[in-house]
Design goal:
- Chain A has 3 helices and 4 strands, in the order E-E-H-H-H-E-E.
- Chain A is of the alpha+beta class and 85 residues long.
- Chain A has a 4-stranded antiparallel sheet with strand order 2-1-4-3.
- Chain B is an alpha+beta fold and 139 residues long.
- Chain B folds into 2 domains: 3-36, no CATH class; 47-138, no CATH class.
- Chain B has a 4-stranded antiparallel sheet.
- The chains are: A alpha+beta (85), B alpha+beta (139).
- The A-B interface holds A 48-50, 54-55, 58-59, 61-62, 64-77 and B 46-47, 56, 60-70, 72-73, 75-77, 79-80, 82-83, 85.
- Strand 3 of chain A pairs antiparallel with strand 2 of chain B, so a sheet runs across the interface.
Chain lengths: 85, 139
């Protein structure tokens, strides 16, 4: 399943930034962009001798597999957390 | 001790079977009991975890890194990797060989990866140093 939400937190002694990114909006924008750029993508795939459907499916597979990714770095001067759900 | 194992040892003690036969029987018994394990217990791992606990820069405090990567991402990456043109893969192979890594990336295929992932359940790397602790494992 395609991840729908990303949580980003950056904490420094001065700032504490928390972001909840609604990824479904990002995917919507990317979808529109992909449709607009589809002729260019198609030409690029043909030049690189790649099957455009396999390529697009591969990219979608990577995006869909991102769910559950968790990256957390705690340093003395800054903490960073990225969680994709 | 299980009843079957006890029976095998009794047979060995009674001289009815040899030590080799007893060993084979016990090994077969162990294999059978593994096969009987619930499917849940043998399910391939879902995540690759990397946990690092190290001294901070200039010895200031501790730095901790905790990364969890879904195995599904590994699978998708390999599938996407199959799209890399052959020339580029040969280039990667050459660079790996130059750095002493004899891996042929053209042989990393989704079907091969599944076999590796199934065996990763027991995979664990622990590095303990006076300045850092690194753990890589699957869960």
């Amino acid at each position: 399943m395609i991840p729908m939400l990303a949580q980003v937190r950056v904490k420094t002694p001065e700032h504490d930034i928390r972001l909840w990114l609604p990824l479904f909006l990002v995917w919507l924008l990317l979808l529109i962009l992909a449709v607009l750029l589809s002729p260019i993508i198609l030409i690029a795939c043909l030049i690189a001798r790649l099957n455009p459907f396999t390529t697009v499916w591969g990219v979608v597979g990577v995006i869909a597999a991102l769910g559950g990714t968790h990256i957390e770095v705690k340093a003395p001067d800054a903490n960073v957390l990225v969680r994709i759900a | 001790m299980s009843e079957d194992r006890k029976r095998i040892l009794d047979l060995l003690a009674a001289g009815k079977i040899t030590a080799d036969e007893a060993e084979r029987l016990i090994a077969a018994l162990a294999g059978a009991s593994r096969a009987d394990e619930p499917r849940e217990a043998r399910r391939p791992p879902k995540y690759l975890r990397v946990v690092v606990d190290a001294d901070g820069e200039n010895g200031q405090g501790r730095a901790k890194v905790n990364v969890r990567v879904p195995m599904q991402l590994l699978r998708a990456g390999v599938r996407l990797g199959a799209l890399i043109p052959r020339d580029a893969r040969d280039e990667v192979n050459r660079a790996l060989r130059e750095n002493g890594i004899g891996i042929d990336v053209t042989q990393i295929k989704p079907e091969n990866l599944e076999a590796i992932l199934e065996q990763l359940q027991d995979f664990s790397v622990d590095i303990d140093d006076e300045h850092a602790t690194v753990r890589v494992f699957c869960e």
